Amino acid sequence: MSYKLRAGDLVQVKRWDPVPYWHWGVYIGNGEVIHLSGAEFDLKAKSSANVHRVTWKEFLGGSVEWDYVPCPSNIDRAEVVRRAKSAEGGYFRNRPYDLISNNCEHFARWCHGEAESKQVQTATKWAVFGGAVAVVGAGILGAILSEDKEEKRKERPY
Q: What SS3 state is found at 148?
């Protein structure tokens, strides 16, 4: 990747524990990232996860797969960095980590203006779609089995 990170850019790194996901942070310059995480990215430590500063190398954690979201031109980079630093050292939004409503992506995107997690939104859409497919499939299967029973009942001579 030839892009030179600038303070205020959002960064994401691919993690694989236990399934693939993107871990998010805010690049603040000088080779440092502020992110929401448990100690050493330990998923079991999410109840104590807080916003803290790490080096770029620590943030990557050995992963070679990363990406970035450049700071939009209508947002002041210094303000993004100020927001990230203002949350440092504690819970994000004074609430414990929560995968659905208060995760690392919520924190990073909040620094750009809106706390949201597109990963959670996508997963929710797929879960709803999968549930709908299962319900429709069960309905079709039920109709087929019911029709089959009716046909067999009609075939009986008594």
A: helix
